[in-house]
Amino acid sequence: MDIEFLDKIEPDEFRALYDMLKTIRIPMCGDKTRRGFPPHKKMCLGIIRGRWNGIVGLSADSMKYPDLLDEVVRIGDKYCPFNFTSIHLNHNVICPPHKDSKNAGASMIVSFGEYEGCKLVVEGNVCDTYLRPVLFNGSKMEHYNTNDLIGNKYSLVYYAKDRGCNS
Asked: Does domain 4-161 have CATH number 3.60.130.30?
């Protein structure tokens, strides 16, 4: 799979989600299982395999915020061209070069908010994900964000988890 740019999404598609995000606190994650990742704000929505208990099911974030889950699934069902099981919601995340080895197949990322910079780089190709979904295989292709974020950026990453993996 190569990098594929999908059609731009109208900003109004994210309005309800953006309004919801103003009313919740996205937790800070000091994720020591992801080498090189600084502390960051993220939520995992959808189906996961619990990192500590190994149970496959709906994430705690999904159960805590069912309306949020419904809204990100609505967006994914409308724009994501593959069957996804999980969605990462990131807030102002700048990630180092990595591969998502536990994912199965394609990933789709799209960003929204009021920001500049923080472009996605996939295998050396700079991609602007602002309102423009980008498809690539995150388990095989190294990717990261540029470290020049100004403003308030949210991103949604749609993917399918490998059946034997953790969240």
From this structure: yes
